[in-house]
Amino acid sequence: MSYLGVDFSTRAGLTGELVAGRDLLVESLARRLRTRRGALFYDPEFGSYLPDYLGERVEDAGAEAAAICQLDLEEDPRVISAAVTVEQVALEGVQLRATLDTITGPISLIVDAVHAPDALPVVSEGVPYGVG
């Protein structure tokens, strides 16, 4: 297994808890999707266009959100490939499932994205694909 380092967890605020390995990768990917592209002065290419997109209503919200999410996830060098599918589309937002092949193995994420100004996607780890 590849070494991914150690960082402070951002899952439940800044508690000082350290995370490593797969948990670190999941938190890093969630942070990428919740950070607006260009928001970090020291790394303007980091982040996602998904938060900006969520403030707009478009006809094909699910497919466009899935495409944006897939491109953003594949920018992480630890992600070998990503496939993002639309789980649910509603007036208030979309739910996406991201199935990733990573250097630590497969990861499945659920991305709940609400259509609202200043809304940030909620990212949680789903059931690993190939299980159940």
How many helices? The count is 3
CATH class: Alpha Beta
Shape: globular
CATH topology: Nuclear Transport Factor 2, Chain: A
Radius of gyration using CA atoms only: 14 Å
Largest sheet: 4 strands, antiparallel
Straight-line distance between termini: 24 Å
CATH architecture: Roll
The total of beta strands comes to 6
Return residue spans where pLDDT drops below 50 for at least 5 consecutive residues: 128-132
- Give the DSSP E fraction (strand runs of 2 or more residues): 25-35%
Secondary structure category? alpha+beta
Protein name: IraD/Gp25-like domain-containing protein
Characterization of this structure:
This is IraD/Gp25-like domain-containing protein. It comes from Deinococcus radiotolerans. This protein has 132 residues and is of the alpha+beta class. It has one domain (6-125): Nuclear Transport Factor 2, Chain: A. Helix content is 25%, strand content 32%. It is built from three helices and six strands. A four-stranded antiparallel beta sheet has the order 3-4-5-6. A two-stranded antiparallel ribbon has the order 1-2. β5 and β6 (122-125) form a beta hairpin. It is globular. It starts with 5 loop residues before the first strand and ends in a 7-residue tail after the last strand. Residues 128-132 have low confidence and may be disordered.
Record the SSE blueprint.
Elements: E1 6-8, E2 18-20, H1 21-34, H2 50-54, H3 61-74, E3 79-90, E4 93-102, E5 105-114, E6 122-125
Antiparallel strand pairs: 1-2, 3-4, 4-5, 5-6
